[in-house]
């Protein structure tokens, strides 16, 4: 009986493919990131005509008046403040070899969040800020941190804090591998997965502003600008890696490993289409 | 007439009963579990395993450890069905994702 219910629900969900609400025509296969970003931003600004472009970085708080009021009050004593302080302290403390995070980053790591992730031509892959931080640690003889919370969240919180207001400036170099990474990220974003047969777009394109259980869904536009975030649901801070892996679990898909290529490419795509929107992280979410 | 039909039905039911009511064996479980694991492995190569498949596989193993092979076989078959659906999903999404794209 239980398996029959599972199968029926899966079949029903798969059948829902035919009734997808968003665009009907099939997209061209040749990636055009500039056109994509333009269409992406146009879609959201037309869907929410009262919002200014920069308001999208506030996620659900820009979608719902009550939540917006709660957020304003929360910002008086932001729950991520401890994390920023911890990150600042960690950032300034030298490694055992005397070097520090500042030695691994342009401008000593200050005010650079908006340039991550970037495509590394030498490696032929996307490099996220979280990955760069752990590589910095390992290059200096320190063990890597967990990608999902605590120390990694603190470091990225501090780096985002020093970059607040700077517009996302993600570049796609003239390299077919970069375009491929971008396209892979886009494919991941729109691909349905898990037993619930949801894609990232199911929640964050088709249904922003709507409720899923008690939560108001955030728009995909600007969704990474506020990262890392303090989530009441988590009772703590979480990184982009944490957001991606928990999204996958929630739709009953087995998450990939943090910083697997798919997630790095997804971050590349999502950040690129939010180019021009200001960094607002760290953020707080319900 | 009615009596003979009833008798015939009873005989057929009794005759058929062993095959319907036969308890699953450990060998049946192992075969069902291996098929489920293979399907789930294939879903893994497609980077699309489901958490419910893993849960059904774990339930199958737990039941088998207790010697409840009927339940272990049922859970294995459930896991296989879920894994096969996840494979179908991953395969169909290779092109279907484009229909959702903002353009």
Notes on the protein architecture:
The complex is a heterodimer of chains A (286) and B (103). Chain A is mainly α and 286 residues long. Helix content of chain A is 41%, strand content 7%. Chain A has a single domain (31-286), classed as Orthogonal Bundle (Cytochrome Bc1 Complex, Chain D, domain 2), CATH 1.10.760.10. Chain A contains ten helices and seven strands. Chain A starts with a helix and ends with a strand. Residues 10-26 of chain A have low confidence and may be disordered. Residues 1-6 and 8-21 of chain B have low confidence and may be disordered. In chain B, helix 2 (26-45) packs antiparallel against helix 3 (51-65), helix 2 (26-45) runs parallel beside helix 4 (69-96) and helix 3 (51-65) packs antiparallel against helix 4 (69-96). Chain B is mainly α and 103 residues long. Chain B is elongated and about 55 Å long. Chains A and B meet through helix 1, helix 2 and helix 7 of A and helix 3 and helix 4 of B.
